[in-house]
Design brief:
Elements lengths: L22 H15 L14 E5 L11 H19 L3 E5 L1 E2 L3 H14 L5 H31 L10 E2 L3 H16 L3 E11 L4 E3 L4 E13 L9 E3 L10 E4 L13 E4 L7 E7 L11 E4 L5 H9 L28 H14 L3 E14 L7 E10 L12 H7 L14 E3 L2 H11 L4 E2 L1 E2 L9 E4 L5 E3 L15 E3 L3 E2 L1 H5 L2 H4 L8 H6 L2 E7 L3 H15 L5 E7 L2 E2 L16 H8 L1 H9 L8 E2 L2 H24 L15 H22 L3 H24 L6 H15 L4 H9 L37 H18 L8 E6 L4 H6 L1 H8 L1 E7 L8 E6 L2 E6 L6 H26 L2 H6 L2 H28 L3
Parallel strand pairs: 1-2, 3-4, 9-11, 15-23, 22-23, 24-25, 26-27
Antiparallel strand pairs: 5-6, 5-14, 7-8, 7-13, 9-12, 10-11, 14-16, 17-21, 18-19, 18-20, 26-29, 28-29
Helix pairs in contact: 1-20, 2-15, 3-4, 8-13, 14-15, 15-16, 16-18, 16-19, 17-18, 17-19, 18-19, 19-20, 21-23, 24-26
Length: 911
């Protein structure tokens, strides 16, 4: 074990912690201590750890600094890994960053334009622009690594990866080679999504949809054309080659197979063929669809079934109309062409109607322009073709991995949480198209395909060839395009562990255990990882996927620079500390749902961190010999038994929550125990009952272990004061009682000798006294007299009389099983326990009785009105059930209040 992680155990004097916890002065030093220990590397962890638990960090894009969303992901991920490390597993986070091809190039080009360049690609050339992008990426990589460390994420930095480094590039090329050799990667002429602004393709999964108002135009191609059609893109109708109708549509089915020649002003008259397609909705619009195979993926699929109809591109890659659109349209923008064509329809009395509607428009997620559907030669992954020798397609592999398990092996099944995303995933698989993997940018993995200009041979190579392998010619050139960035990201879980080499890491740590991601990239990343891992490794990439929502601002909007609500997590850390940030991001979060961040939330988290510090400060400054307590102390009092039992229950419940990735639920359980049970109750009792030093230390040290995954810095700092032999990060999760052999902790319960609810009756009794004091506005400095009639609980409460007196601020206390109910007292009944607080000399009893009688009368009148209403048969029969139930609930609440008032008045002496 490295020296830096060892503290000498010794008998220690009382410890005085600083009055306030100052995160700024300790966090960097603690992180360095963790790094120096070597324990971020699972190969260095102490003890026998047969089971591995690995997370491949979702690599942040090198396009800028980390934002709060990244902080949220790191909080989730590191809470999970620290918990698993405490559970005795070889816990590993493989860190890394993503070259983010399109996003990074777009960012650098934008910066260069702001600096004065007009067209960076033309002015710098490929090598010059790549050098600028590389410099930008390397700079931001180092910044991001520093930020991840500030967040406390316990990554193994010796395994740091980058999607564009040499080992990852080797893996990307090898996957490509295998897919290409199996005939699963092909170059084809298909309609793809094209970003005019970015001058590159983008996949269906890279589109963002925005609701916009537009006009739907209903028209006929000519006076004699028999079928009207409707469209929101009239300019594309200059390239129509067919009209599709449902073969079951009696209005149009007799036209199927007929051809009509129409002149709409295009370069040549259009030959429109009427084709049948069962997917055409008879009841939508005119029940007929104009088919533009060159500018619609759906229409292109119709063309593939009916090749005779032809394909006419009328929009170019620059977003302007091509010559095929006609002389009057060539060179116009899309909007200009639309306006001109609609005017022509109107002038020729072919425009039947115009109506404004709202519809979804697909935008490039990186360039934010409306994408155009254009036919182009591109590289695709065929998801439907059978893989040679495996009898399944890639789509089949992707489906079975989350249903029956890869290869039918239940041990190789991916569990997706929440379950609704499994359904979404499978629906997507059912409708999956071939994956367009080529991008017309320069930053990224260049497609490893070469062309011979002499014999037209196309071949794979991950290095430059001197001669064509077929004709030995020397006129060779590599494909200009780069791979979709999600292709390299899809190899992340196994490329980071050394694949395609057969490394020890790959053998020990793959498949990984857990992966978390936002629901917005389920299609972009989750599906790609499953596809490439099941294909290349014949195994799943991970066993569990946790899908989280988007972190939003207090008003529900996304964090965004353009909205002016963006927050730098480092600034938040500077103000509140890392632990407070982490805890605030996790609390209130549930899988799959969006969460909100606001300042009051982090202030609350900071207050809790300070509370834990103050609890520790009190204990360490009051016990005589602060030290690690190796064995659980014997319970000397009922309060001791209760707090130890609550510690056991809390540890078990928190573990159960964390095992289910319910991070917020676990933090709520721990918070309730820490603040309520331990601080508000037991520490106060410890001031009454002496001799609790060892027990206080025992609870504290286990509390630090329980909280460590969530708030690692403050817990490690406090732990260091206890003189333990190890860093807290490699201690064991507390496990109490009889556990399976090999469980972490292995502590024995020495406190299981009381009935479960006995001490809770003490708490409830004290709470009742405090409530009575508060309700009657009794000054905190005044001591009162109480009588408690407790039935079967009397004997036990008598044994706890000193605690009840001190915590209830009582001068006199009488506890009996039963007896005469004293007059002139305020009363509360808790189960079978009746608590009477003598108000004589403390308040004006007659005035209080008058107030209670007035309130009783008002509620009686209110309840009577409700009874009359609910006794009305017409109301019961005609009102909605929900309204009737609401009125019944009001009556029940009123009657409950009357019962309480009766008890209060009887206690004071009603007459």
């Amino acid at each position: 074990m490295p020296d830096s992680c060892i503290f000498k155990a010794s008998t220690m004097p009382k410890i005085e912690l600083d009055k306030a916890y100052n995160a700024q002065t300790v966090e960097d030093g603690i992180y360095k201590k963790w790094e120096d220990s070597g324990f971020f590397n699972p190969d260095n962890l102490p003890g026998d750890r047969p089971e591995a638990f690995v997370i491949a960090m979702p690599p942040p894009n090198v396009t800028g600094i980390l934002h709060l969303g990244h902080a949220f992901e790191n909080a989730l991920m590191d809470t999970q890994i620290r918990y698993q490390r405490l559970k005795g597993k070889r816990a590993l986070i493989v860190p890394g960053t993503d070259h983010a091809a399109v996003a990074t190039q777009a960012r650098v080009e934008s910066d260069l334009k702001k600096a004065g360049l007009i067209n960076p690609r033309q002015e710098l050339g490929r090598d010059g622009l790549l050098e600028k992008i590389r410099e930008f990426a390397e700079n931001h990589k180092s910044i991001m690594i520093g930020q991840i460390k500030k967040l406390g994420t316990s990554c193994d930095w010796s395994r740091l990866a980058y999607t564009f480094d040499e080992p990852r590039s080797k893996a990307v090329n090898e996957v490509f080679r295998r897919l290409f050799a199996d005939g699963l990667i092909y170059r084809g002429y298909r309609v793809v999504n094209w970003s005019v602004k970015g001058q590159s393709t983008c996949s269906d999964d890279e589109l963002e949809y925005e609701t916009r108002k537009t006009i739907v135009y209903t028209f006929k191609y000519g006076e004699s054309f028999p079928i009207p059609i409707a469209t929101t893109r009239p300019e594309t109708k200059l390239g129509d080659t067919a009209v599709a109708v449902n073969p079951a549509d009696k209005r149009y089915k007799h036209f199927i197979g007929q051809k009509f020649t129409v002149d709409v002003g295009a370069a040549q008259p259009l030959v429109i063929t009427i084709i049948g397609d069962k997917d055409v909705d008879i009841n939508y619009g005119t029940g007929a669809v104009g088919v533009t195979p060159a500018h619609s993926q759906i229409d292109f699929e119709m063309y593939q079934k009916n090749k005779e109809i032809g394909l006419i591109p009328v929009i170019g890659q620059d977003g302007r109309m091509l010559a095929a659109a006609g002389h009057d349209y060539e060179g116009l923008t899309i909007l200009e062409a639309r306006e001109k064509f609609v005017a022509w329809l109107r002038a020729n009395n072919l425009l039947i109607s115009e109506a404004e509607i709202e519809h979804n428009v697909g935008l490039s997620d990186r360039f934010k322009d409306v994408v155009e559907a254009l036919p182009m030669e591109q590289w695709f992954v065929d998801v439907n073709k059978e893989i040679p020798g495996r009898g399944q397609s890639l789509k089949d592999l992707m489906r079975e991995a989350v249903t029956v398990g890869h290869g039918g092996d239940k041990g190789k099944i991916i569990a997706i949480a929440p379950d609704r995303f499994k359904k979404i995933y499978l629906q997507r698989i059912d409708n999956l198209h071939d994956w367009c993997i080529s991008r017309q940018i320069w930053w990224g993995h260049r497609i490893p395909i070469w062309y011979c200009d002499e014999c037209n041979e196309i071949f794979y190579s991950d290095q430059k060839y001197d001669a064509c392998p077929k004709c030995q010619g020397h006129n060779l050139h590599q494909d200009e395009d780069t791979l979709d960035t999600w292709f390299s990201s899809g190899t992340w879980t196994f490329s980071t562990l050394g694949w395609p080499e057969k490394t020890a890491d790959l053998e020990k740590y793959h498949p990984t255990a857990w992966m978390q991601m936002g629901y917005e990239i389920v299609f972009l990343w989750l599906m790609r990882m499953v596809l490439l891992s099941t294909y290349a490794l014949d195994d799943i990439p991970f066993h569990n996927v946790y899908i989280h929502g988007i972190l939003r601002a207090k008003d529900g909007r996304k964090f965004s620079k353009s909205l002016g609500n963006g927050l730098d997590p480092l600034e938040v850390i500077k103000k509140y500390g890392t632990d407070a940030l982490r805890l605030s991001l996790i609390k209130g979060v549930s899988a799959g749902n969006d969460s909100r961040y606001y300042e009051e939330k982090i202030e609350g988290a900071r207050n809790f961190v300070n509370k834990l510090w103050n609890i520790s400060r009190f204990i360490l400054s009051t016990v005589d010999n602060p030290k690690i307590i190796a064995e659980p102390p014997a319970a000397a009092t009922e309060a001791d038994s209760w707090i130890l039992r609550r510690l056991e229950e809390t540890a078990a419940a928190a573990a159960q929550a964390l095992d289910q990735a319910d991070f917020s639920g676990a933090s709520e359980l721990l918070g309730e125990f820490t603040w309520n049970d331990f601080a508000d109750w037991y520490l106060e009792i410890a001031k009454i009952e002496p001799g609790k030093d060892e027990l206080l230390l025992f609870v504290l040290q286990n509390l630090l272990k329980l909280w460590h995954p969530f708030i690692p810095f403050v817990t490690e700092e406090i732990w260091s004061k206890l003189g333990g032999p190890n860093l807290l990060m490699v201690e064991s999760w507390p496990v109490f009682g009889n556990r399976k052999k090999g469980s972490a902790g292995g502590l024995k319960g020495a406190w299981r000798r009381v009935k479960k609810n006995d001490f809770n009756s003490v708490k409830e009794t004290v709470a009742a006294i405090r409530n009575l004091r508060s309700e009657n506005k009794i000054d905190a400095g005044k001591f009162a007299t109480a009588i408690i009639l407790a039935g079967d609980q009397a004997e036990f409460l008598q044994s706890q009389q000193e605690i009840i007196k001190k915590l209830g601020r009582l001068e006199n206390l009488s506890i009996a099983a039963q007896g005469e109910k004293p007059a002139g007292s305020a009363v509360k009944i808790v189960g079978e326990i009746e608590v009477y607080l003598d108000l004589a000399g403390l308040i004006d009893i007659e005035a209080e009785k008058t107030r209670l009688r007035r309130e009783e009368k008002e509620i009686e009148q209110y309840a009577k009105g409700l009874e009359i209403k609910l006794g009305n048969g017409d109301f019961i029969s005609q009102a909605p059930a929900a309204i009737v139930d609401k009125e019944k609930a009001k009556l029940a609440a009123a009657q409950e209040k009357l019962d309480k008032l009766k008890i209060q008045l009887d206690g004071l002496g009603r007459q």
